[in-house]
Amino acid sequence: MVNKTTLILEGGAMRGLYSAGVLDVFMKNNINVDVIYGVSAGALFGLNYKSRQIGRALRYNLKYAHEKNYMGLYSLFTTGDIMNREFCFNKLVYELDKLDFETYRSNPVDFYTVVTNLQTGKPEYIKIDDAQKDMEYFRASGSMPFVSKPVEIDGKLYLDGAMSDAVPFKKVLETNCEKIIVVLTRPTGYRKKKSYLPYRLVYGNYPNLVETAKNYYKEYNETMDLIEKYESENKIIVLRPSELIKIKRVEKNTKKLQSMYDLGVSDCTQKLDKIKEYTQ
C-alpha cells in the first residue's frame, strides 16, 4: 500500500505552537494527510489534528501559561517533571480542555509518536491508534532531558524523541510514501552546534544514550541538509518560521505564544495554494 502524504512535525517545546498554527490552517481548509510523525511538542500539539480540534493547542497554552501546576519550575521542584503529569495528562485532557478521544480513534490518519529508548539510545516510532490508552507515549515524547524523569512503559524507559530523531525525515524516506510535508520550528538555515550539556554525568548508566546525545547535532544537521536538498528539487513541501521569534522552551509570555502561533497561520496561508495542489 502506498501512503499518499506523510506529515512530519518537529518539536521544540513552545516553538511547537508554530506547528499548531499550521495544523489549524490545514483543518480549516480540509488539507488531509495519511500519516503523521510527531516528535515531542510536534506530537503533543499534533494529536489535535487527528482529534480534529481546531484552536485547542493555542487555547489551553494561553489560558494556563501562568498556572503553576501546568509546567515550569514549580512543577519541576515538586514533581521532578517540568511538565506536570497530573495536570497535563489527566486534568487537562479529561476536564479542563477535553481531548476528543473518540474522534482521534475514528480518524484513519496513522499517527506515530517518536520516543527515545534510554537503554538503546535509539528512536522508537510508536503507532498510536488510541490516544487514551497510550497517552504515556505522548508524555514520553515530550519529556525533555535533565528536567523530566524517564517515563517507564512496558518495562522500558523513554525520554524526549528529539534526543534521537528530532525530524524523522530519513525514517519517512524508508517508507512507501508519495509525498512529504515537513513542518520545522526553526527558520531557514538553522543548524545545531555541539552540545556540552552533562549527559554523561546525569545519564552515565545509559552509555548508548550518552553516545546518541554526543552525536545528535551532526545527525540533525545532516537531516536539515537532506531536507533542503529535497526542497530545492521540489520533491517535498517544507513549512518553517519565516522570521525568528525568540521564545523560551517554557514560555510564559502569552503575546509571544500568540505570535508563534500566528506566524504558523500566516506562513501556511501564504503557501496554501501550493499545499492544496501538492496534496491532491
Number of strands: 8
| General form | globular
Helix content: 40-55%
Major β-sheet, in short?
8 strands, mixed
End-to-end Cα distance, whole Å, is 18 Å
How big is the Rg?
18 Å
The fraction of residues assigned to DSSP E strands is 15-25%
Task: Output the helix-strand order.
Answer: EHEHHHHHEEHEEHHEHHEHH
List unreliable stretches of 5+ residues. none
Q: What is the count of helical runs?
A: 13
Structural class: alpha/beta
* Average predicted confidence as pLDDT: 95
Structure, described:
The protein is an alpha/beta fold and 280 residues long. It contains 13 helices and eight strands. Strands 1, 2, 3, 4, 5, 6, 7 and 8 form an eight-stranded mixed sheet that branches. Helix 1 runs parallel beside helix 2. The longest helix has 26 residues. The protein is globular, with a radius of gyration of 18 Å. 42% of the residues are buried.
